[in-house]
Write a structure and sequence with these properties.
The protein has about 450 residues and is an alpha+beta fold. The chain has 3 domains: about 110 residues, Alpha-Beta Complex (Dipeptide-binding Protein, domain 1); about 100 residues, Periplasmic binding protein-like II (D-Maltodextrin-Binding Protein, domain 2), CATH 3.40.190.10; about 180 residues, Dipeptide-binding Protein, domain 3 (Roll). The chain contains 13 helices and 21 strands. Strands 1, 10, 11, 12, 13, 14, 15, 16, 17, 18 and 19 form an 11-stranded mixed beta sheet that branches. It has a 4-stranded antiparallel beta sheet with strand order 4-5-7-6, with helices on one face. A hairpin with a 5-residue loop joins strand 2 and strand 3. Helix 7 packs antiparallel against helix 10 and helix 12 runs parallel beside helix 13. The longest helix has 21 residues. It is globular and about 70 Å long. About 40% of the residues are buried.
Length: about 450
C-alpha cells in the first residue's frame, strides 16, 4: 500500500511538473528577426500595435474586433458598424467614431484621387462617416457583400498619430522605442482583448537570412523567417518550423502599352513561361504551380486554369517580326526573386522576345511581383487580388461559378500571369510556447509565451 502511494505521489509530481512547463507564463522578451520592414502594409508591427474593425476566422468569415456588430442595407451598398465600447488607444485616448473615420479615410485613396494610381490602392467604398457616438457608416456605389471581411485587412487597421509621430493603436502591444536595429514593443496592459503573456517583443528588421538562422542557433533570436526555397533545408536541419497554406502569389505583370498593347503578344508571353522550372529548381518543389489568382485550397477551381507551357504556339503568336527591346524588373531586390526573373527572361527569349533584366523597382514592360493574400474567403480574396493588381473587374455573386467567371475575364486580358502560390514559414526556438499562425501565415504573438518567464 505504501509503495503504491509513493508511486502515485511520484506520478502526481511528474504530472504537475509537466503541467507547469506547458502552462503559459507572463513575462519575458521575445526576439523575432525579419528581412523586411515591420511597418509594411501587412507587417508584423502593424498587426501587434493596431487593430481592425473585424478579424477573420480560419474559414474566412468576419468576426468582431473593434466593431462588435454590423448590418447592411440597400443591397449591401450601405453598412453600419457599431464600435466596441470603452476601448482606448495605447496613450489613453478613447477610441471614437471620428477617429475611426479619419483612419479609414487615410488608409486608402479616394477613387477620384490621383493617389489611387500611384502608391495607394483605392477605397472599396465611396464614403465613410460617423453616425452618433458608436456607429460608423460606410456607403458604396456598388454592392459590397464582403465589406466586413475586407475590413480585416491590415491596410484598414485603425491608428492615430501620437506624440513624436509614434503610431498609436488599440492592439496588444505599444511602441516604446527603436535602438540598435530593434523595434521594441511593450505589452499593452489595458488592451481590450486582455494583456498578452509577453512583456515585450523586439523586432529586428532587415536581417539577412544567414544572420537570422545563426542567431536562432545560438539563442539570440526566438523566431526567424524560412523562405519557401529553404524549407527543405530547414527540415533537414531539424528546425522547429511552422508553415502556412500557400498565401503568396508569384506573378508576372505586363504593360498594356507598346509591344504588349497587342493581346496576342501578351498571350504569347503567358504561353512561354515555364512554371514547372520555377517550381522544381528555384522553389525546390514547395507551394503549388498555378495560373489562377486564387490558390486551390481557397477557390476549389484553380486547377481549371491551364499551367502548361506551349513554346511553339507562343512563337506563332509572337510572329516573325523582331519586337522592340523589353525589360523585366522585380519589385524588390530579393535574390530568389531575381533568380526567378532571370529564368523568365530565358523563357521569353526562347519564344523570340528581345528581353533583358532591368534594375529593381524601375519602370518596365514586365514586372515580377510577390503579392500577399490576407483574406481567407473566396469572394473577399478575389476582391483583394484584383485590387492588388489594379484590375477594375466587378465580382458579381459569391458562388464558385461567379468567381471563376470574374477571374477568367481578368486573366483573359493577359496583363497578369500567375505563376506559383507559395507558403510562409517560420523557425521557432525551443523556449517559445503556444505559437500559432494567422490564416495568412503571420505569427500570432499576442497568445504566445516563453518557457521560464516569471
Amino acid at each position: 500500500m505504501l509503495r503504491q502511494a509513493a508511486i502515485s505521489g511520484v506520478l502526481l509530481c511528474v504530472a504537475l511538473a509537466a503541467s507547469a512547463r506547458t502552462r503559459p507564463h507572463y513575462g519575458g522578451t521575445l526576439r523575432i528577426e525579419i528581412r523586411g520592414d515591420a511597418w509594411a502594409s501587412d507587417g508584423l508591427a502593424r498587426r501587434l500595435v493596431l487593430d481592425t474593425l473585424t478579424n477573420l476566422s480560419d474559414s474566412g468569415a468576419a468576426q468582431g474586433a473593434l466593431a462588435v456588430q454590423w448590418s447592411a442595407q440597400n443591397n449591401d451598398q450601405r453598412w453600419d458598424f457599431q464600435l466596441r465600447r470603452a476601448v482606448r488607444f495605447q496613450d489613453g485616448t478613447p477610441l471614437t467614431t471620428d477617429a475611426v473615420v479619419a483612419s479609414l479615410t487615410a488608409s486608402c485613396a479616394s477613387r477620384a484621387s490621383s493617389e489611387a494610381s500611384a502608391n495607394m490602392a483605392p477605397c472599396p467604398w465611396s464614403a465613410v462617416y460617423a453616425a452618433g457616438s458608436s456607429d460608423v457608416v460606410i456607403t458604396a456605389d456598388t454592392p459590397l457583400p464582403d465589406l466586413p471581411e475586407l475590413l480585416a485587412q491590415t491596410r484598414f487597421a485603425i491608428s492615430r498619430q501620437g506624440p513624436s509621430d509614434v503610431l498609436e493603436g488599440t492592439g496588444p502591444f505599444r511602441v516604446v522605442g527603436f535602438a540598435d536595429g530593434a523595434l521594441t514593443l511593450a505589452a499593452n496592459a489595458d488592451c481590450w482583448q486582455g494583456r498578452p503573456f509577453l512583456d515585450s517583443v523586439q523586432i529586428f528588421q532587415h536581417r539577412s537570412l544567414r544572420d537570422q538562422w545563426l542567431d536562432l542557433s545560438v539563442g539570440r533570436a526566438d523566431i526567424v523567417q524560412v523562405p519557401t526555397e529553404l524549407l527543405r533545408q530547414a527540415r533537414q536541419q531539424h528546425l522547429n518550423i511552422l508553415v502556412s497554406r500557400p498565401v503568396d502569389l508569384l506573378a508576372l505583370t505586363l504593360s498594356t502599352q507598346g509591344v504588349f498593347a497587342d493581346a496576342g503578344m501578351r498571350q504569347a508571353a503567358a504561353l512561354a513561361v515555364d512554371r514547372m522550372a520555377l517550381y522544381n529548381v528555384i522553389f525546390q518543389k514547395q507551394g503549388e504551380v498555378t495560373a489562377s489568382l486564387l490558390p486551390q485550397w481557397l477557390s476549389g477551381y484553380a486547377f481549371l486554369f491551364p499551367t502548361g507551357r506551349d513554346l511553339d504556339r507562343a512563337r506563332a503568336l509572337r510572329g516573325g517580326a523582331s519586337p522592340a527591346p523589353l525589360t523585366l524588373s522585380t519589385e524588390t531586390g530579393d535574390a530568389t526573386l531575381q533568380l526567378a526573373a532571370q529564368r523568365l527572361v530565358l523563357n521569353l527569349h526562347e519564344a523570340g522576345f528581345n528581353l533583358r533584366m532591368a534594375s529593381t523597382g524601375s519602370t518596365s514592360a514586365l514586372e515580377l511581383r510577390l503579392v500577399h493574400l490576407e483574406e481567407a474567403g473566396p469572394r473577399a480574396a478575389l476582391d483583394e487580388m484584383l485590387t492588388a493588381f489594379g484590375q477594375n473587374e466587378t465580382v458579381k455573386g459569391t458562388d464558385s461559378r461567379s468567381l471563376w467567371k470574374a477571374e477568367s475575364l481578368v486573366l483573359q486580358s493577359g496583363s497578369v500571369i500567375p505563376l506559383l502560390w507559395l507558403p510562409r514559414a517560420w523557425a521557432v526556438g525551443e523556449r517559445v510556447r503556444d505559437l500559432q499562425l494567422s490564416p495568412d501565415g503571420e505569427p500570432l504573438l499576442a497568445d504566445a509565451s516563453l518557457e521560464g518567464a516569471k
